[in-house]
């Protein structure tokens, strides 16, 4: 799956969710085959509900795929 296909899939999920899709604005791509989830910005906006982001994990998570 290409990066563009992954992003399109995330946008479709966002459109289908009744509560909105605020997480997708924190997913970016800098090169083909790589998605980056910006944990710091998501937590900074008070939207991080899965875990408490502390100083150790305030960085971007890189998701490589083929």
- SSE run: HEEHE
The percent of residues in helical segments reads 25-40%
Number of domains: 1
Note the total helix count: 2
Number of beta-strand segments: 3
Strand % is 15-25%
The radius of gyration over CA amounts to 13 Å
Write the layout of secondary structure elements.
Elements: H1 3-16, E1 27-31, E2 34-38, H2 39-44, E3 60-64
Antiparallel strand pairs: 1-2, 2-3
What does this entry look like structurally?
- The chain has one domain (3-64).
- Helix content is 30%, strand content 23%.
- The protein contains two helices and three strands.
- It has helices at 3-16, 39-44, and strands at 27-31, 34-38, 60-64.
- Strands 1-2-3 form a three-stranded antiparallel β-sheet.
- The model has no long low-confidence stretch (mean pLDDT 64).
Main features:
66 residues; alpha+beta; 3-stranded antiparallel sheet; 3 strands; 23% strand; flat
Summarize the structure.
The chain has one domain.
């Amino acid at each position: 799956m290409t990066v563009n296909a992954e992003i399109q899939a995330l946008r479709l999920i966002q459109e289908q969710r009744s509560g909105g899709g605020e997480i997708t604005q924190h997913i970016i791509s800098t090169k083909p085959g790589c998605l980056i989830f910006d944990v710091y910005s998501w937590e900074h906006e008070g939207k991080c509900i899965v875990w408490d982001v502390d100083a150790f994990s305030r960085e971007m998570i890189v998701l490589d795929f083929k």
